Each structure stands twice: as C-alpha cells, then as structure tokens.
C-alpha cells in the first residue's frame, strides 16, 4: 500500500519514510534498551561527551591506590566489603582516581557500570537515575543480564520512575540473582 494513497499536490522535503506491510515486530531487547536510553543519565558515565576531557590521574601517580582498588574489584580478599566509599575533601582527586579506575576496568573488560555524581547537576546531582543508569550499562555490557533486565522494563516501563529502593531491587538485585 503506497504512502498517501489517493492524495494530490503533496510536497515533502527531506525525511526518511519506511513502508511496512503486515506485522511489524520490535525486538524485545531493543525496546527495553531504548527505554533505558531515555531514563539513563549518560552524562554520569566515565567518558561522557558533556565534560571532556575527564579528570584522570597523571601517569605514574597514585599507582599503589589504583592497584589496591583493582584488586578490590576482583574480590580477592573475602573479608573485604562489597561497597567501597572513597572520601576526601573537595579537590583531593577522588573523581580523577575513580575516572582512571573506570577506564582501566573498561579496558580490561571488567567494568559493569559506573555513575559519577556532580553537585548541582540536574540529573547527576541526585540518585533518581542512578540504578536505571547502572542497569542500562549492565544490560549493554553483560550478555546474561540483557534478557532479564530487558524483560523487567518491557513488563513495567514505569520502573525507571519508581523509588530508588524499588529500582535497586528490581533492576539490579533481581536480575543479578536469576
């Protein structure tokens, strides 16, 4: 069936049009990933276009700390915590350390996800999009999590607007324990 059947004197400039006949199916994973793209705060990743260049450690600095952090990510010490809190005064280099570590982990194929907060920023200044952003990265980067996370979003697209407790439980905890 042609576009604009039985129409006259129509002028269209530019644009791309696709005519689809019969049933049109959108792959479930693609739909879920697109929903995440809307909800995820991509500026909070370790390499966003928004603020380039990112703060990083200068070469041959903080090597011991970065080595310790990499070992911590491997979980080699069963007595260590699963949560790391890096703290210090403003300007001490916390963001540079974690940006550098994130790049190293990505280069090694071991970065599940990250979120860099920024005080006063509309989307990075609070935790509203934290777990949607992490779940988006996990769905993209961890093959066995793509299906479960995509299914959760497909079944309940409003999950990305729910409380952060609910997002943590449904987008991160449940898929990781399936």
Automatic annotation (TrEMBL):
Keyword terms: Repeat
Signal sequence range: none
Listed InterPro entries: NPHP3-like_N, P-loop_NTPase
Highest taxon above the source species: Eukaryota
Domain annotation Nephrocystin 3-like N-terminal: ranges: 62-174
Keyword Repeat in annotation: yes
Name of the protein: Nephrocystin 3-like N-terminal domain-containing protein
Species per Swiss-Prot/TrEMBL record: Gymnopus androsaceus JB14
